[in-house]
Design goal:
By secondary structure, the chain is mainly beta. It is built from 3 helices and 26 strands.
């Protein structure tokens, strides 16, 4: 049921408190204490004394932090802050993010973590008390002012999720919380809220923690090929060994293209990121919907033969070996103390192996005979006379 104090309805006036998203990572650490936490500060902009909590706090005064919260940060599931101890008074919902200021500074006396599954919300609205009359099923944030159900709701049933119900469009005016399984038969005696609902939205779950493991034993090498990236030829027409004109080494660029593919049935939403440790020197960061592929380039020095034997042609080919492979990836997803798995695929085209192949070939014999003929002259007076 709705959380409220005996003498105070659970209707809260919305004010424009600032809010910015945080940068909680998804590095695969699975402990509940790191998944869901709230850090509260006694001053705005996260200044002054602070406390961090990972479980419900029925009375902040017992921990010497009552009625003094002016800013806060939330990681994981949403939290509800109450103006009175034991989860009474006005409830204020804070989803994952950073809040440099809050709507009611110096007024919170209790904190409650939302443990419910928020991934598939649904609420049914009825135009009459006791779940009678026309009804409307809502599964996402909705501005009723744009349709035919504005200011007509008198009762509701919450199938899934935790919902915020607002008096005015655009999340304006007074609002109240509705919990999973709640069956509120009549808004008027319970909330004095009959025919005043214009906007509603479900609380959003915290971002899941994702760990990724490459299943190398199931890898598939799809293709291998050698690509010629450079060709060098040196000719030594002399009778002595010669130094190759080119440097004894050259630098070449290696490439590694890699990508991650989510399954068609993935439950992960755009913007979520995690790291994939391919090897110690290759940590691939995947961000769904934004950065699911990358290309790495590095310089590599290749040693070449330094000298050419006499009367020899030296031919050098610099080759880059390109290997295309795919590897299944097991994703372990932890959210709100629940763990599930799904599969993905890592793909790469690696051109990081560069080598030199060379051959030595003697100069053609015809060239040797021609050189010998051109170097012979007949001396005068050697002919025989009659």
């Amino acid at each position: 049921m709705l959380q409220h104090a005996p003498a105070l309805p659970t209707l809260v006036e919305v004010s424009a408190a600032g809010r910015h998203w945080g940068t909680a990572g998804t590095d695969g650490a699975g402990a509940h204490s790191t998944m869901n936490r709230i850090t509260v500060y006694e001053r705005a902009n996260f200044e002054g004394l602070s406390r961090e909590f990972t479980c419900d706090v029925p009375d902040l005064h017992e921990l010497d932090f009552g009625d003094c919260i002016a800013s806060l940060k939330v990681v994981g599931q949403p939290w509800i802050a109450y103006t009175d101890p034991k989860y009474e008074g006005e409830p204020h919902a804070f989803e994952e993010g950073e809040y440099p200021s809050v709507a009611r500074p110096n007024s919170f006396s209790a904190l409650r973590l939302v443990h419910h599954d928020l991934g598939d919300p649904q609420i049914t609205l009825y135009e009459r008390p006791n779940f009678q009359g026309a009804c409307k099923v809502v599964v996402e944030e909705t501005n009723l002012a744009y349709g035919y159900f504005n200011d007509r709701v008198a009762s509701h049933v919450v199938q899934r999720g935790v919902w915020l119900l607002y008096q005015h469009p655009g999340r304006g005016g007074w609002h109240c919380l509705a919990w999973p399984g709640e069956r509120l038969a009549d808004y008027k005696p319970e909330l004095n809220f009959q025919s005043r609902l214009s906007h509603l939205r479900p609380l959003q779950p915290g971002r899941p923690l994702v760990s990724a493991r490459l299943l190398w034993e199931q890898k598939q090498v799809e293709s291998e090929r050698e690509v010629v990236v450079d060709e060098i030829e040196g000719v030594n027409e002399t009778e002595s060994e010669q130094v190759l004109a080119a440097s004894s080494s050259r630098e070449y660029t290696t490439t590694l293209w890699q990508s991650f593919h989510f399954s068609n049935a993935t439950s992960l939403k755009a913007g979520l990121s995690f790291t994939l440790i391919v090897e110690a020197s290759n940590i691939f960061t995947v961000q769904k919907g934004h950065s699911e592929s990358s290309t790495r380039r590095e310089r590599m020095e290749v040693q070449l033969p330094a000298k050419i034997p006499p009367r020899t042609v030296l031919s050098i080919q610099v080759l880059r070996k390109e290997v295309t492979l795919s590897v299944p990836v097991l994703l372990t997803i932890t959210q709100n103390e629940a763990v599930r798995t799904e599969m993905g695929e890592y793909r790469s085209v690696s051109g990081t192996n560069i080598s030199a192949r060379y051959s030595l070939k003697p100069l053609p014999a015809a060239s040797t005979q021609q050189a010998a003929t051109e170097g012979t002259e007949q001396e005068p007076g050697t002919g025989m006379g009659l």
